[in-house]
Every structure is written in structure tokens, then in C-alpha cells.
Design brief:
- By secondary structure, the chain is α/β, with parallel strands linked by helices.
- It is built from 7 helices and 4 strands.
- It has helices spanning about 10-15, 60-65, 85-90, 100-125, 140-150, 160-165, 170-185, and strands spanning about 20-25, 40, 55, 130-135.
- The radius of gyration is 18 Å and the shape is globular.
Length: about 210
């Protein structure tokens, strides 16, 4: 789906229209509203891209460019110019599968992406006492797509030598995400309600559904 196909209204727009101050960062399939009582950052470090990185107000993206820089994976463009795609599918992949050096470089980029998301989130969180602050940490989705074969010894593409060299990329990135969450919670006050939503999980994908008519 694209942001235009999403049903219903985003809850953060309803809260904004009620006069509350809202910050929304990297929620999947989010679009930039024409007006908003706060800030919105989209497709900066998400797994899915549709129309490119943007923000409301527009100068928020300029500010992050100066202080944090762009996300090393999520802000990349499609090599053929497509609008809807997952940047981590195309980053550092010269063949149908990545070589060991490409996997090592991609893992370093995802680690840097977690750090960039942490710094950007803490920067915006600290700008004012938001009524609602929402951020999605999409790096966990990307590392699952790209490194499950390294994590799972039963995967047909699992190579013990790569695992010995890289360690467990999924556990590595998850630990970094946990630390980021801890840093965000530590910046909030005792009266803050924290709601954590985990996504659909990750695992091997061996079916041939992509061969069937939609």
C-alpha cells in the first residue's frame, strides 16, 4: 500500500487537530500533512519508501541534515529511480545475493542507522514537552530481511564462516534498538505514558506466493 491507500485517518492528525503538540518520526506509510500542530518526519530511516524523505515543516529536514545527517540506508534512492521500494534491498548488493564484504558493510550501515535514529529522536524529543511523541525504529525490520540467513543456522544460505565473522547481526541490531528505547524513556518524565508496539515478527520466507496472480 501507499500512504494514499491507507484507510482511516492517522491518530496523530486527530490529536494535532485537538490542539495538542505532536512529533511523529518515521511511521511507516506516513505522508506529510499540509498543516500540523508539531513536526512530521517521513521515510528517513523507514524500511519502505514511497515518495522520498520529507518533513513538516520542511526546515526540520534541513535542521537534521546539519546536526545528524541523512540516515545511511533509509534515505537512499532506488538505482533505477523507482518510487516505492525498500532501500535495504538494494544497498550494497552487486549480485543476486551479497558477498561477505557487502554484508559486513551493510551491517555497519545499519548500526550507523540505529545511531542516527537515536540522535535524531533525542534531538526532537528534547525540543519541547510534546503531548505525543511517536517514533518507529525500522532498522530492526531491515536487519531481519537482510540477515536472517546469518542468524538462523537452519537457513539454506547459512554459512558458519560468515556467522563467525559477523556474529549475530539481528541480535546486535536489536540490542542497539533496546538501548535507543532506553535512552528515549530516560528523557521522559515520571508522568509519561510509554506505549511500545512490536511489529509482525521475522522468519524465513520460502513460499512461492510471488509467482501467483495478485
Amino acid at each position: 500500500t501507499t500512504p494514499r491507500e491507507a484507510r482511516g485517518r492517522p491518530f496523530w492528525e486527530v490529536i494535532s487537530e485537538a490542539g495538542r503538540r505532536v512529533a511523529v518520526l518515521d511511521i511507516p506509510h506516513c505522508d506529510v500533512p499540509e498543516s500540523f500542530n508539531g513536526v512530521v518526519l517521513k521515510e528517513w530511516g523507514c524500511h519502505d519508501r514511497h515518495d522520498g524523505t520529507a518533513s513538516f515543516p520542511a526546515d526540520l529536514l534541513d535542521e537534521l541534515d546539519r546536526t545528524v545527517g541523512r540516515h545511511p540506508v533509509g534515505c537512499r534512492s532506488h538505482p533505477a529511480g523507482d518510487e516505492a521500494f525498500a532501500p535495504c534491498d538494494y544497498t550494497l548488493r552487486s549480485g543476486s545475493h551479497r558477498c561477505a564484504d557487502e554484508e559486513r558493510q551493510l551491517l555497519d550501515l545499519l548500526r550507523g542507522g540505529v545511531d542516527a535514529k537515536r540522535r535524531a529522536s533525542l534531538q526532537i524529543l528534547g525540543q519541547e514537552p510534546w503531548d505525543l511523541f511517536a517514533v518507529a525504529l525500522g532498522e530492526g525490520h531491515c536487519v531481519g530481511h537482510q540477515f536472517w540467513h546469518v542468524h538462523d543456522p537452519s537457513h539454506p544460505r547459512h554459512d558458519p564462516t560468515v556467522r563467525a565473522s559477523l556474529g549475530d547481526p539481528i541480535e546486535d541490531v536489536y540490542r542497539r534498538l533496546d538501548a535507543t528505547l532506553g535512552d528515549l524513556i530516560a528523557r521522559t518524565g515520571p508522568d509519561t505514558t510509554v506505549y511500545l508496539q512490536m511489529n509482525h515478527g521475522m522468519g524465513p520466507h520460502f513460499d512461492g506466493a510471488h509467482l501467483l496472480d495478485q
